[in-house]
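Contributing new records

If you add data, match the layout below exactly. Sequence lines come first and carry their own label; structure lines follow with theirs. Keep one chain per record. Anything else will be rejected by the validation script.
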Amino acid sequence: MLSPKMMGIVSMVGGIVMVSLQDAMVKLFADSYALHEVMLVRAAVALSLTLVMLQISGGLQQLYSSSFSLLVLRGLMLVVANTCFFLAMVKMPVAEVVAIFFIAPVLITALSAILLKESVGLARWLSVAIGMVGVVIMLRPGAEAIRWEGLYAIGAAFAYCCMQLLTRHMHTTASTATMVAYAQIALLIASAVMGMLTGRGQFSDVHHPSLQFLLRSWTLPAEHDLALWVFMGLVSAAGTYLVTRGYRLASAPVIAPFEYVAMPCAVVWGLMLYSESPDSVAVIGIILIIGSGLYVMRRESS
C-alpha cells in the first residue's frame, strides 16, 4: 500500500495533467470571448461537481469551517493566479508561460521552510535547483523569450504559491473538497462581478490582446464552445481536487517539484492545440525538469 507521501505525489501528477489541459484550452477562446465569461461557466460546472463530492464525502455542512477567512483568502489567490496566467497566455506560447510560472515551486519550497517550519533536505533543494536550470534553459535569456507579458505569469506564480501555502496550513481544519468548493465559489463570484462591471464592452477599446481578452463584451456562446467550457469545468474540478489532495497528504517540499509535470504537458497541449513545436533547446530543458521530479519520487519511495 502506498504511503501518504506517495499517494500525495500520485494525486499531484494526475491533477496537474488535468489542470494543464483545461488551462491550455482557455487560449482557444482568447480571440472571440471575454476571459471571465469562460471562467464563469467553467467555475459553475466545477462547483456543481465539487458540491457532489462534498455531499458524498461527509455532507454540505463541511462548507461551515473554522478556517472561513483563510478559505476565502485562498480562493482570492486562485482568482488572481488564474486571471494572470490566462492573460499571459494570450500572446505567449503555452510552454513559455508555464516555464515562467515555474518560479512557484521554488517559492513554495523556500517559504514552506520559513513560514511552515517544514524540513527541507539538501537533496530536495538540489532537485528543485536542477529543475529550475531546465526552466531557465527554456526561457532562453537574451533571446527575448521573456516579454513584458511574462509579468502576468510571474504574478500568477506568486499568487499560486500563496494559495498552496494556505492549503498546507489548513490541511487539518478543512477537507480537500471544502477547499476546492471555496475556490470555485471565489472564481464564480469574481467572474460574475467582472461581467457586471465590463460585460457590456464599455472598456474594450484597448489595443493589447491580453487586455482585450479581459475587457471584451460578453456574447452568447456557440453550442460547441459552451460544450467545451462545460468539459473544462469538469476537468478543472477533478484536477483541482487531486492537486489540493496532494498538498494535504504530503509536505510542500515533497510535492512542489512535481508541479514540473505541467511543463511537458504544456509542450504536448501546445503542439496539439496550437502547433507550437518544441525545438532541441526546449527538449533539453524538459529532460532536466522531468529528471529532477523523478529523483524526488525515487527518494520518497526508498
